[in-house]
Write a structure and sequence with these properties.
The complex is a heterodimer of chains A (164) and B (262).
Chain A: H1 3-25, H2 28-44, H3 46-51, H4 55-75, H5 96-107, H6 110-121, H7 126-133, H8 137-163
Chain B: H1 4-9, H2 23-60, H3 76-80, E1 110-112, E2 134-141, E3 147-154, H4 158-179, E4 185-191, E5 195-201, E6 208-216, E7 219-227, H5 233-246, H6 248-253
The chains are: A mainly alpha (164), B alpha+beta (262).
Chain lengths: 164, 262
């Protein structure tokens, strides 16, 4: 991958990947930082990236792992609290439905949230989600099924409360 | 409220202020990272060579821990300590492990020597018993596949054990860099001067070995377990936590190898 190819790849996919990682970790600033760092690593390992079947998946997985590592450091108290996962800055007011969806996603178990994001937001087929997450397809199907049901229930509760 | 699946399928991140670095800056940082990684990998190799070469050089010059010019890094206490270099017969190496193997019901016992059970992601990543004075290993085999192994290794001095720890950490960190983005990859879960916890992800199917190395005085304890679900960070962390919990009794007993023995 030469400089121009990398620049095109970066420009075309940065925002999309950041949105997907944001949906997984529910923190926009953290998502943006991790995706940025993942692209730095992508260039550092560009020969590896050339061999990757799905470069975008490589960057997304790396960014997600970075976010998880940051979370671990936070949990262990080694990281200043101002860089911990927490409330994020909103540059423009999102819709009520969007806020409810992000809040509901955040309440799901991490594995279910990751499966839903990769399948529905990143638009990956089940076998690609399984490959990216590193678990059997059946596990992903189960996580999707449970995640959808839980998400619907959470959003229904939210709607009931807002109408009450 | 719209259908949640429609919402998911049309998800976007409104209000997300995208101020990404210019692509040229990303490349510049990536190039700098590659140079740093190359340097780190070299340091790992040098540390491994130094671990082997130092005792040889000391032996060739007729000096050892008891003689020669004192190492400034060696603490005053360390030079005065007589390190325990043989594992006591009653040392509880199997504490926290099942009493019998799952596949044949045979007892789980400590035995002299070391035989690696785990598979490494990178050549030279795994610990080796070079320069140890005594080694014992206990291996538990599960009913179908996998299990756990625990190894206790003693070194001539605290400094030698510290060097072995540094070398192991450097080798694993070099492997993390070399295997990033690969189907088989290494991941450091936590690391400090006396503890190293890392996972070797063996495939995209989620199978992994989780390793925990702990140093107390002139002793290293190496715990490894095989587990599935390595694609889930929570499972990796839980496996590491379980490894720590199971080895608690053994680690506590390692105080006999410290500079101020219990």
């Amino acid at each position: 991958m030469d400089e121009r190819e990398f620049d095109d790849f970066y420009t075309a996919s940065f925002q999309r990947i950041t949105g997907q990682v944001y949906a997984m970790i529910a923190n926009r600033d953290e998502a943006q930082e991790c995706v940025q760092e993942a692209f730095v690593r992508a260039w550092a390992h560009r020969r590896k990236l050339e061999r990757a079947e799905h470069p975008e998946a490589w960057v997304r997985t790396t960014a997600y792992r970075l976010a998880v590592s940051r979370w671990r450091r936070t949990q262990r108290g080694r990281r200043p609290t101002d860089r911990a996962v927490g409330p994020t800055l909103e540059a423009a007011a999102p819709s009520e439905a969007h806020v409810a969806l992000v809040a509901a996603l955040k309440q799901l178990p991490e594995a279910q949230r990751q499966a839903l994001v990769l399948h529905h937001i990143a638009d990956l087929p089940v076998h690609d989600v399984a490959r990216e997450v590193g678990v059997p397809e059946g596990t992903i199907k189960a996580r999707l099924s449970r995640g959808r049901a839980a998400l619907a229930a959470l959003l229904a509760d939210e709607e009931g409360l807002s109408h009450a | 409220m719209p259908d949640p699946l429609d919402e998911l399928d049309n998800f976007s991140a409104p209000g997300l202020t995208m101020t990404p670095l210019p692509a040229a800056e990303v490349r510049r940082r990536g190039t700098r990272m590659r140079r740093r990684n190359t340097a780190l990998a070299t340091v790992g190799a040098v540390a491994a060579v130094a671990l082997v070469a130092t005792p040889i050089a000391l032996a060739a010059s007729g000096t050892g821990d008891a003689g020669g010019t004192p190492d400034p890094a060696e603490t005053p206490t360390a030079t005065a300590v007589t390190w325990v270099t043989t594992i006591p017969p009653d040392f509880p190496l199997t504490s926290g492990l099942p009493e019998t193997n799952g596949h044949d019901g045979s007892p789980v016992e400590a035995r002299a020597g070391y035989e690696p059970q785990a598979v490494d992601v990178c050549d030279g990543e795994g610990w080796t018993p070079a320069e140890t004075t005594d080694v014992q290993q206990a291996t538990y085999t599960g009913e179908s596949e996998g299990g756990q192994e625990r190894t206790l290794a003693l070194y001539p001095s605290e400094r030698a054990a510290g060097l072995a720890m540094q070398s192991q950490t450097a080798q694993v960190q070099a492997c993390v860099i070399a295997s990033e983005g690969e189907g088989r990859s290494a991941e450091v879960i936590s690391s400090d001067d006396d503890t190293l916890v890392y996972a070797d992800h063996m495939s995209d199917a989620g199978d992994m070995f989780v390793h925990r190395v702990v140093r107390v005085g002139n002793a290293l304890l190496l715990d490894s377990t095989y587990a599935m679900g390595g694609g889930d960070p929570d499972v990796v962390q839980q496996t590491a936590d379980l490894l720590e919990e199971k080895s608690g009794g053994t680690v506590d007993a390692m105080c006999v190898f410290s500079a101020d023995p219990c």
